[in-house]
Design a protein that fits this description.
Length: 117
């Protein structure tokens, strides 16, 4: 069964940093890219960062230059380094394949990030 277990969230002030981790049961790299998704309050879940097997990352404009996605293939772990955090980064962060559930898995529990002064 494909699983994703996210951790590392918390409450920080604007300008702060967090590092999210996602342990997955699937091999990395695989046939799918790995991605981080954000579900902000009252909004649909959307991807914010993804990385392909060639270590080629992509970011949405809202996080470009502030977030960095990376993987540790031996540990089957995906990371999201989040710097210069803004209140609009608040929400629940999930990791999954891109497109999501590409190997028949399901969403994990996510990790809550709250950016507030």
């Amino acid at each position: 069964q494909v699983q994703f277990v996210e951790s590392g969230g918390g409450s920080v002030q604007p300008g702060g940093s967090l590092r999210l981790s996602c342990i997955t049961s699937i091999n990395i790299p695989g046939i799918y890219a790995m991605a981080w998704y954000l579900q902000a309050p009252g909004k649909e879940r959307e991807w914010v960062a993804r990385i392909y097997s060639g270590n080629d990352p992509y970011y949405t404009d809202s996080v470009k230059g502030r977030f960095t996605i990376s993987t540790d293939n031996a540990k089957r772990t995906v990371y999201l380094q989040m710097d210069s955090l803004k209140p609009e980064d608040t929400g629940v962060y999930y990791c999954n394949t891109f497109p999501p559930n590409g190997l028949g898995g399901s969403w994990g529990q996510g990790t809550q990030v709250t950016v507030s002064s």
